[in-house]
Amino acid sequence: MTLLRKLDDDWLTTAAEWLAAEENYRWLDFGGDTQILTPLLLKVMAQRDTHYLRLFAPRENARPIGLVGLSDISPWFKTATLWYVLGDKTYLARGHTTRAVLELLDHGFGRLGLQAITAWAVEINVASIRVLEKVGFRPIGRRRCCHRLGDRYLDRLLFDLLAHEHRSTACLKASNR
C-alpha cells in the first residue's frame, strides 16, 4: 500500500529537487518551455485549482519518495492530465509509483468526478509507459518529434483512461495494493 499526502511547505524543496534532477526533468514539460520548477513555482502550482499534487510514500516508511499530480484539471470538461515522478530511485521497480497513480486516479475519478484523464510518455521512457499500461491507460496516438532530449527530438506517446474503464480495473487495483 502506498500513502498519498498533501504537498506541504516542509517538502516543497525536496519535491522541487526531485523535479530539478536531470534524470527526472528530461521527461517532463510544465508548459512555456518550463521543465524545472523552483520551490516557489511548485508552491504556486500546488495552490491552484487546476492542479492536484500529492507526495507518495511506501506504507513501511512515511518518508515521501515521489510526487504524483493531476494538472490542467477542467471542472467543465471533467478532464485532467496525469504525471508522476519517483524522486528516490532506491525504490525503483517496487510498484510504489504504480500504486500511487492508482490512488490518485481513484481520487480523480471519484472525488473530483473526472470523466477522462490523459497522459503522455516519451517513446523511450519504458518505465513510464509500463506504469500507464499497468493502471489501465490505453494508447491513443503520438505527437511526433515534439520532445527534446539534448539534440534529439523524440515522439510523445499519448494515452487516456475513461472513468468507466478505471472502475473496471478493480481487480488490478486489488492485486497491486
Percent in helix: 25-40%
CATH superfamily: Gcn5-related N-acetyltransferase (GNAT)
Order of strands, widest sheet: 1-2-3-4-5-7-6
Question: Do you know the CATH architecture?
Answer: 3-Layer(aba) Sandwich
Given the structure, what is the number of helices?
Answer: 7
What Rg do the Cα atoms give? 15 Å
Number of domains: 1
Q: What is the succession of H and E elements?
A: EHHHEEEHEHEEHH
What overall geometry do the principal axes of the alpha carbons give? globular
Total number of beta strands: 7
| Fraction in beta strands | 25-35%
The CATH topology turns out to be Aminopeptidase
Summarize the main sheet: 7 strands, mixed
Low-confidence stretches: none
CATH class: Alpha Beta
Mean pLDDT: 88
Straight-line N-to-C gap: 5 Å
Look at the helices and sheets and give the structural class. Answer: alpha+beta
Keywords:
Acetyltransferase (GNAT) family protein; Aminopeptidase; globular; 177 residues; 7 helices; GNAT_dom; alpha+beta; Acyl_CoA_acyltransferase; Ribosomal_N-acetyltransferase; seven-stranded mixed beta sheet
Describe the structure.
The protein is of the alpha+beta class and 177 residues long. The protein has one domain (2-176): Gcn5-related N-acetyltransferase (GNAT) (Aminopeptidase, 3-Layer(aba) Sandwich). Helix content is 34%, strand content 33%. Helix 1 (9-20) crosses helix 3. It is globular, with a radius of gyration of 15 Å. The protein starts with a strand and ends with a helix. The model has no long low-confidence stretch (mean pLDDT 88). Pfam families: Acetyltransf_3 (PF13302). Residues 1-160 form the N-acetyltransferase domain.
